[in-house]
Amino acid sequence: MKRLLLCAALLAWSGMASAVVYKWVDAQGKVQYGDSPPDGVHAEVVELLGTHTSRSAASAPAPSARAASTSTTPADSSTKQAVDQDVAATREKQCADAQAEYKKLIEGRRLYKTGDNGEKQFLNSDEIDAARMTAKQEVDALCGSGTS
């Protein structure tokens, strides 16, 4: 139990130790602390445990400025397009495979599965119906509601 409490305390402390804390004076002359100061206010970074340099900032970047700096670059967008194309191609292949399996189950006469020893085990009508239902659900999930 003591180890669990110690572990929880260390995890909480490590999260606080890595946080950036700003110090500024508000319009009423009171000292304020926070993780992001208001726009247009002179703020300085508070020296935390494990840091030995004091940094000051004229004002912290606004959240919108932070979001703008992390926008996608042309290289990122081309990579995203390549990934999207790969995903689309994989889905099309999975859909085609599922449709072929469903077609085989619908049109097949003597359906079987391969046993452990490699021998054919023919399915009865209930097993065939269950396999058809499963295949239809798979086609619907992979291709949408239509089964062309």
A few lines on this structure:
This protein has 148 residues and is an alpha+beta fold. It is 51% helix and 13% strand. Residues 54-60 and 64-69 have low confidence and may be disordered.
Q: Can you put this structure into words, describing what you see?
A:
The chain has 148 residues and is an alpha+beta fold. The chain has 2 domains: 19-61, no CATH class; 76-143, no CATH class. The chain contains 4 helices and 6 strands. The strands form 2 sheets. It has a 4-stranded antiparallel β-sheet, with no helix packed on it. It has a two-stranded antiparallel ribbon with strand order 5-6. It is elongated. Mean pLDDT is 77; it is low at 54-60 and 64-69.
Q: What sort of overall outline do the alpha carbons produce when their principal axes are compared?
A: elongated
Helical content (DSSP H or I, runs of 4+): 40-55%
What is the count of distinct domains?
Answer: 2
Distance between the termini: 61 Å
**SSE run:** HEEEEHHEEH
Main pleated-sheet profile: 4 strands, antiparallel
Number of helices: 4
Strand order of the largest sheet: 2-1-3-4
Structure class: alpha+beta
Percent strand equals 5-15%
Mean pLDDT across every amino acid position: 77
What is Rg?
Answer: 31 Å
- Poorly predicted spans: 54-60, 64-69
DSSP, total strands:
6
